[in-house]
Amino acid sequence: MSNKKVSIYDIADYLGIASSTVSRALNDHARISEKTKEEVRRVAKVLGFEKNHLATGLITNQSLTIGVVVPAVNRNFFASAITGIEKIASENGYTVLICQSHDLYDREVELFDTLIANRVDGIIVSLAINTEQFDHFRKARDTGIPLVFFDRVCDEIEDTFKIVVKDFEGAYLGTSHLAEQGFKRIAHIAGYQSQKIFRDRLAGYKQALLDANLPYDEKLVKYCQLTTEDGTGIAEELLQHPPGPDAFFCANNLTAISAMAYALNHHIKVPQEMGIVGFSEETVSSLLKPSVTSVRQPCEEMGTLAAQKLLEEINQEPAGQLDFKEIALSTELIVRESSTPH
Amino acid sequence: MSNKKVSIYDIADYLGIASSTVSRALNDHARISEKTKEEVRRVAKVLGFEKNHLATGLITNQSLTIGVVVPAVNRNFFASAITGIEKIASENGYTVLICQSHDLYDREVELFDTLIANRVDGIIVSLAINTEQFDHFRKARDTGIPLVFFDRVCDEIEDTFKIVVKDFEGAYLGTSHLAEQGFKRIAHIAGYQSQKIFRDRLAGYKQALLDANLPYDEKLVKYCQLTTEDGTGIAEELLQHPPGPDAFFCANNLTAISAMAYALNHHIKVPQEMGIVGFSEETVSSLLKPSVTSVRQPCEEMGTLAAQKLLEEINQEPAGQLDFKEIALSTELIVRESSTPH
DNA sequence: TTGTAAGCGTTATCAG
DNA sequence: CTGATAACGCTTACAA
Q1: Could you tell me if B171 and B291 lie in one domain?
Q2: What are the tens digits of pLDDT across the range B102-113?
């Protein structure tokens, strides 16, 4: 195991030229002869040279790396968004550092420190569910590291791109659909209201009830972390004592799936006796029996957009005034079996 | 936006001491007075100092970063394994660079180059489904970067830890179970045989048939990439023309779920008319109706083990002879509704 | 206990 | 078109 790394000096020595020439040749500099370039590349290959990005980053003050911090990678939404981010990043020569906060504020802060220490050129983040302090974001910004929020954004930090979907609209669509299908007592499995997206979804739900002339019953709204277990627990709680709800509008899809599973396991027919609509798709949404109606988010597009905006900010020429703003993409209701009894 | 980063020199100047003292203080060096350490830490905080890992890595020749290359992060198995890896890594002060090959050989090679260029201290990898050349692994090894394979391992590279499960055993368990439940024509949705794990699963399936006195019918074995679409397509193909199979043993869980969905959508009762067993769990396996029997792999444990072995190799003192080998963990059959008609 | 100075592998700035 | 040489921010002998 020849632990020795080969450097541009080794190539320079080998060819009897200067290291700076090697560097330029390797970077395809304009004023280097084709012949030299070819020789350098050949020798580089022979010697097994691999450029050291650490050294490059140290001098150029850019690592060509961007950090991504999400709650968890095993949710369809985040996995797809990451795929979008990776696409744009790699097209532009950037590497992506993917990190999971596991929905823990402390871990998120830690990750930010690590990313800053690793001198990433920018960070794309979707907040942990209990993040209510924002100094780590400010620190990154003050260190000159561009930031883009997506999905779970942070309103307290301004002058930053925020990529979201029209949560109000999506929730309104999903809830209205249930009402149209004849469901009368529509429960809402909601996210904690510290996150704007969950406030918006609740608001959309309420507005839809109002417009459908259905009463708003706060006992039918339950706030949680939106885990699988939460879905099961809330379904159990609400369905135990009649009159329970006859439908669930869920703020994510994990809870939609687990609430539905609870119902089915307790011999409640979906959709005949119980309607289900989720927010955001999982891979299995269409495969479940019954298949799950859900509000589709343009996951991958959110990722590509976030990455584009981040690169825009990273590469802005002077103190070029960027038009920072929140960009809200449209949602789409995918109607399936779980909400259509007729 | 004060794009200027603050360095140890700024702290040194501020306090009128030497930069080396600052460096030592920050690293909690033994021979620095407590008072100095405290002052340095205080000023570092005030000035907003963040150590530059690039510079540190350049000189210490280690980045305290390990790379992970997996086919995709949105599968339960990989997400869990990554969680295990992250746990061990962060306990030991390492950052994890997660990369997706998207099951493309070319992308995998690319990622290896990037990781090497970023001077990761080691790489944990599960092969892309069509990886059949191994020079990128050899290059990493020759560059002195320790490698650990897990799940989809590479037999051609020796002297490397390989973390797998007992695939033969798992497939044997799953298939035998179907046979015991009275299923007679058990089909196998198999992975491409270029991967050892899929050869082993096929072998376990065959042996189980043999031991159950069931004939082996090669028409009931279908090779594919194991995507959701593959599961649906194969179910359709096999079920269209009688006599079709009366059970599916699937080499992963996505195909188990999608094959089951196909059956249900075509009014084939699971498990009464069709048994289903998958390999490796998805989050929804237990939530589906019927719930899906599957061979459970110790996903997270595979991750922790892989990370431990990697760190062992990274930190081995002299050319300390490590006992490289393949470590095969046990599987467990989780019996649920999809395979138990009685 | 602290300071001085060399060096990690690149790129950038001058010259030539 | 190419070559010296300084610099990036940190660690680490070696000196004091």
Answers
A1: yes
A2: 999 999 999 999
In the DSSP assignment, the letter for residue A291 is P
Q: Which of B54, B72, B284 sits opposite A63 (nearest CB)?
A: B54
Q: Please indicate whether residue A287 or residue A318 has the higher confidence score (pLDDT).
A: A287
pLDDT of the residue at B158: 87
Using the 3D structure, point to which of B42, B60, B78 is the last residue of a domain. B60
Across the interface, whether the CB atoms of B257 and A76 are under 8 A apart is answered no
Q: Which residue of B has its CA nearest to A60?
A: B54
Interval B255-306: pLDDT, tens: 999 999 999 999 999 999 999 999 998 888 988 889 999 999 999 999 999 9
How many CA atoms does the CB half-sphere of A224 hold within 13 Å?
Answer: 22
Contact at CB, B52 and A100, closer than 8 angstroms = no
Same domain, B71 and B126: yes
Gap from A97 CA to C10 C1', Å: 22
A282 and A192 share a domain? yes
Protein CA at B11 to nucleotide C1' at D15, angstroms: 23
**A130, pLDDT greater than 90:** no
Q: Are strands B95-100 and B65-70 parallel, antiparallel or unpaired?
A: parallel
Tens of pLDDT, residue by residue over A171-189, are 999 999 999 999 999 999 9
Interface-testing mutation among A289, A300, A315, with chain B (most B C-beta atoms within 10 A): A289
Strand D: positions under 7 A of a protein C-beta atom: 1-5, 7-13
ω into residue A245 within 30 of 0, thus cis? no
**Residue for token digits 């989809």?**
B152
* Measured CA distances, A133 to A18, A107, A190 (Å): 52, 13, 21
Is the domain of B107 the same as that of B45? no
Q: What is the pLDDT of residues A68-86, one digit of tens each?
A: 999 998 888 999 999 999 9
Footprint of strand D on the protein (CB under 7 A): A 16-21, 24, 29-33, 35-36, 55, 58-59, 61; B 5, 7-9, 19-20, 23-24, 26-27, 49, 51-52, 55-56, 58-60
Q: How far is A317 from chain B (nearest CA, A)?
A: 14
- Number of independent structural domains in chain B: 3
d(CA B186, CA A239): 40
A159 and A172 within one domain: no
Identify which of A63, A95, A287 has the shortest CB distance to residue B257.
A287
Domain annotation covers residue A134: yes
Report yes or no on whether pTM surpasses 0.85: yes
User: Stretch A159-167: mean pLDDT, rounded?
Assistant: 95
Q: Where are the extended beta strands (E) located within chain B? A: 65-70, 95-100, 122-125, 147-150, 161-165, 186-191, 221-224, 247-250, 275-279, 293-296, 326-329, 332-334
User: Does A45 reside within a domain?
Assistant: yes
The residue in chain B having the minimum alpha-carbon distance to the alpha carbon of residue A64 is B118
Range of the domain at A292: 167-297+332-339
**Nearest CA distance, B241 vs chain A (angstrom):** 23
User: How far is Cα A293 from Cα A174, in angstroms, rounded to an integer?
Assistant: 8
A330 CB-side CA count, 13 A: 4
Q: Do A273 and A191 share a structural domain? A: yes
